[in-house]
Amino acid sequence: MRVYATPRHVAQSVNWRRQLDDRVADANAILETDFGVRVRIESAREWPARRTGENASELAKELRDFDRGEDVAWVVALAGKVSRAEVSFRSLGVAYPLGKHLVLRSANDAAELDAIERQYTELDAEERERLYRKRKRHKAAAVLLHELGNTLGALHTRERDGLMYAVYGHEMLGFSPGNVALITIGLRHRTNGPSALRETSAEQLRALTEAGVSSWAFEDYERALASHRQYAPAPKGSPRPSPKPQTARRLRKPAKSAKPAKSAKPGQAPKAPTRPVVHRSVSAEPDAVPSELSQEEKLRFSAARRQKQAGDARAARKTLAPLVKKFPGVFEVQELRCQIALAHGGNFGWIRAECRQMKKLLHTSN
Q1: Handedness of CA 10, 29, 202, 229 (dihedral sign)
Q2: In the chain, fewer beta carbons within 10 Å around the N or the C end?
Q3: Are 21 and 102 members of one domain?
Q4: pLDDT (tens digit per residue) in 84-100
Q5: pLDDT digits 0-9 by tens, 269-291
Q6: Same-domain status, 273 and 311
């Protein structure tokens, strides 16, 4: 792994190289357990990027143009800190799917510490400081592992303790079994040169069609199938995945997929994806419209969800507000309320308050 630190990252970090070493060491503890591999830092240096890191996707493109990474497994850029306490991976990093380039952003130390101090008032100052440092290291390693997973073909999971869940949580322990299988395939073909993308896509397509959608977030699953089919034909006899997992909940009808790219000519290696993954919030459950709602209320619920998915969290919150007040005991309504708050970002205490009712219902159902 070759690492570049932007000027903003260097200026905002105390001993950024030591923090990088700690992050990689913590990530290796998971990688060795699940895959028997370790990441080694080939070099780490300052990089005067033209962009400051506020737009991680643009920085990822600049990084890819600057260093193609032909002699290393990954090329990483360390960007400036986020402006507030963030728990959504979409704000903390981006990566090229089945590629080599990823951008990692640091947590906002002051905002994170303030959130812990307000959340854990029963702890004394020393205990809160110790918890903050522990959470900070865990979060840094989780972001690195999440983005490495994206470069190796892992998908967002519905399991909250899995590292590929869309929202960070301190309970994250490792990769789900399904993603362990996908990442193992990605690692096996990592050094195969021009044929790696085709071979990885063929095996991961087979694994996904055999496993079905139930292990992963539905939209990620559909997107991955479409992407893999560009580079590898579907294996003969493989069942077509059903958009409805075996559950009482109903899935939202997926949007029409974009027109697939042209296949590579015979004997010519396909081009790697050119857009980095930008994370979006993904529900832990399939999209569903609660049966307790009237037809008009169902339309309001669906509209709020579409607004959130389109990135307009403020409008989504306003649309959902009447349902939040009327249906405090309906899990899907309170879950969407929490997701909108996470997408909106801001004061961690406010986000926690918006998610409190969902957590209460979740614990009651368990």
Answers
A1: negative
A2: C
A3: yes
A4: 667 678 888 999 888 99
A5: 445 555 555 443 333 334 568 88
A6: no
Write out the H or E segment, with its range, that includes residue 207. helix 196-211
Q: Please give the backbone phi and psi of residue 323, each rounded to the nearest 5 degrees, phi first.
A: -75, -35
| Tokens found for residue 198 | 């085709």
CATH code where residue 153 lies = 3.40.390.10
pLDDT(68) > 80: yes
* Domain carrying residue 357: 295-365
Residue 239 CB partners (closer than 8 Å, separation 6+): 209, 210
Does the predicted model carry a pTM greater than 0.90? no
171: phi > 0 → left, psi -120 to 50 → alpha, else beta; which?
alpha
The answer to whether the beta carbons of residues 27 and 66 sit under 8 Å apart is no
Q: Please report, rounded to a whole number, the percentage of residues in the chain having pLDDT higher than 90.
A: 31
Q: Which residues are CB-neighbours of 273 under 8 A, at least 6 positions away?
A: 96, 97, 98, 99, 227
